[in-house]
Structure formats: C-alpha cells, structure tokens
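re: that chain from earlier
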Amino acid sequence: MVNSKTKIPADLQDSLSEEMEKDKELLDTVDEELSNLDSKQYDPQRLALIKFSLETIRNNVDKVLRLMDEKYEVKSDDFITAGMSADTNIESALDTQRSVELHEPEMINGQRVVEGVFDGNTMIGSDGKQYTVPANYASKSKLVEGDILKLTITNAGSFIFKQIAPIERRRLIGTLEYDEMKHQYYAALNGKKWRLLTASVTYFKGEAGDEVVFIIPKNTASRWAAVENVIKEHEISGVDEDAQTGRPVDSPNPFANQDIDFLGTGEL
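^ sequence. v structure.
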C-alpha cells in the first residue's frame, strides 16, 4: 500500500484509477459468470467470456506496468529501501510469520520454550517480547529475516536458540560497504542496501569494496541480509572459476533454487 505522504505523478495516478475501475467491473463479470457455471455441464461460451475478461484485465495491468517501467523506471522491489513504507511492509511480513506459524510459549520439563521470528538482529517471540540472538550464532547459522526460531531458557538461565523453519531464500552478489558514522556494514546492490552483522563480515575478514555473497528472503522485503561469503578484491585474479563467479560455499540453510541472482532482479 502507498504511504499517505507518497506523491504519485498525476498521469500515473489517473491511469491506475482508470484501469482499476475497469478491472473491478471485469472481475464482477467474472464472478457472476463463475456463479452461473454448471459444474456438470461444459459451457464453452461462458468459459470463453470468462477467459476474455481475464485477458482484458491482464492487458490493463500490463499497460500500467509498462508506464511504470518505461516512463518512471519503477522497480518492483524499490520499497525495500523506501524508508517508513519499507518498515511497514517488513513489519507486516514478520507479523504474518508470527501469527501463522508460531506456538504459544510453554513450560517443558521446567524450562521455558518460546518460538519467534528472527528480524535480522533479534528474535521477536510469540509473546511479543524481543530476545537478543547472539551475533556469532546468527552469523554461523546464516539466519535471515523471517526465519522461525525456538528459544529454550534453561533452569540455569542459559538461552539456547534453534532454527526450526527457515524462510525461502535467494542469494545475491553485491559490494561490501561500511558506514563509519554508524559503524555499520552493508551489502549494496542496484542502489539498495541491506545491513550486515559485523560478526559475519569480520569472520570472512571483509573490507569495504570487497564483493559479498549475501542472502535475503526470496519473496519479502528485508532490512538485513546474511553473509554467505566474501570475495576479496586482491584474491580475484588468483582463484578458480567458481570463486570468480562468486559461487558460495555450501550453506546449512535450504534453498528452493541453488542459483545466484547476480543482478538482483529476482530472475534466475
């Protein structure tokens, strides 16, 4: 959803409003035709009308998308770095993870067990509380925003985290940057930046300017990324072909697709 403070060009806003109104009428038609379908009798004429309506909706959407692409160069994942609107989308995604997949806190053998969602730095529990995740554990496990964790708080007061449901991921290759004012490392690609845990970068002895293979959620926006590997600038000429392409080493986290999205377009 567009932030109330976001300004949309008049012609784009008019096109969106016009096409959405057309699509609403077409969808009403589709809904009506579907309700009239007889599941026991094949009706090619009615199905043809439904198909025509859906194709018209698709053409209307394509028209607006072309306007956004060609005139305004809008990218579908620009909201990742669009300030508060990005935060809203990310929090919404985390809220969805919490409500759909998490169990309520419980006591097991005298130990408190809490499930939660990793937000890139901490675990947000199903009880609404934030639990600090050790940076070394998050780095070693290559945790990504949206991963489901289970925390066991022992009788001795120790915190034991376990990754129980990794979110679907994708790999990207970007440039390692460092903000000296904020003391924060970033993975930068196509004008976007993702925060990196310092422990992850120092483990690979990364420095600003190095190439970084990083991991983000496949289908949701994120502020943070996990470091998969760092390719040192001075090492590039002396490594084998796999390393030059930035192909990461095996990860303990499962991926639906093992390829790397080199351009950050989401197309593999």
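The chain has a mean pLDDT of 74.
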